[in-house]
Amino acid sequence: MFGLTKVTDDTLRRFSVRYLRPARSLVFPWFFPRGLGLRGLKLLGAEGQGDAVRYVETTIPRPGAYHNLFGLPLISRRDVEVVLTSRELDSLAVSQSTGQPTLALPRGTACLPPTLLPYLEQFRRIVFWLGDDLRSWEAAKLFARKLNPKRCSLVRPGDQQPSPLEALNQGLNLSRVLRTALPAWHKSIVSFRQLREEVLGELSNVEQVAGIHWSRFPDLNRLLKGHRKGELTVFTGPTGSGKTTFISEYALDLCTQGVNTLWGSFEISNVRLARVMLTQFAVGRLEEQLDKYDEWADRFEDLPLYFMTFHGQQSIRTVIDTMQHAVYVYDISHVVIDNLQFMMGHEQLSTDRIAAQDYIIGAFRKFATDNSCHVTLVIHPRKEDDDKELQTASIFGSAKASQEADNVLILQDRKLVTGPGKRYLQVAKNRFDGDVGVFPLEFNKSSLTFSIPPKSKARLKKIKDDNGLVAKKPSSGKKGAASRNSETCSGQPPNPCQPGTAKTSK
To answer: Whole-prediction pTM value?
Structure first.
């Protein structure tokens, strides 16, 4: 059930892996460095469901405190090379097949905690072999930047280079695969020859290139196709239309799927924002069911979600420095800034507010590109007549905001024109493939959500299932055992940092 047919008992014993029969789980121990005692455990449970296998990970202690490099006690001080994998099962396969020192990252492709970096300083060469999909490839490039790209090499995903365990089960030569690892660093791209494999990877993984899908907003997937790293999204809407409430649910949706998120809320306090997001996460008012608060708060706490502590006007330099730190420490891949106007008063470059805003937008654009991090920037619109809908030109400032942005989203509020409660989201710009359009939104006051129409019980149950409250039947993948994550309604992998992460395979 775990795909370990070709992994020997001797390999399991060397790594101190055990099988807990009552729980149908493999147990991976977390030792202090050099094997100086046990600090925690990771349990990987398996459950057969027809032709599929459902995998569930549980960590003790909880994921946020689980900083383990599986295999660390087997590393010698004389070892100068190491292979890093995203799963313990893959490290077993690498060690058995190649004899190379190998370590598994505790939180897979989600993040590389800085507390682990000192344990990797001794190695002159580090090979990342994290998986067989585009998300693993992007994570490998990101982690290599932390560890000095000049000493890192990456195994590119492909049919002949699947995950290590899958390669072992297919009878491939894992040592040969490691020899094909590409340097993570080069001085410059000088020809298409160096780009051709990148292009092939994008052509072979069209849906993954499109980004992570929203599970709560399928119409947004239809237009934007997904949420992609390195892009800048500008979001606007009339005063009082619910911009902050919508954008918090928009970001929460991605965060529950493992998108490491940093919130910069300069207009409302973090306590109030967290309360709104927790209500949206639980899909209901917790003040009416306080006995369930701890249960929901525990689930919410395990999300890869962080908040800037700023409130009121801030300098763009201070904000960018904070974002840089968050990307390095927490592997942040989505930053929400609500809103741009709170940085205007600190800029002394010019007394011209338009010039100051253009400078700030340029700084966020550069940050998104340089750090392969998506930035969602809320900007207030110009004052318009109440009977007119907003346009791209309604965004405050010059045209630079819409020119620099990859996506422009407008929350339209037509209640003054067509009656109360008529809201819709307009995708006014989409640089990825050009699709634009609108779709209606209906605000649910009890859950503070725009994605769930009132009295829609089926949709409510679906959201709660996605948040892990109710177990759902996973879909089967098309690769070997333990080779693919289960699909949510968005087609994207669930949050690897959450307990109860499900993985399925044939």
So the answer is: 0.70
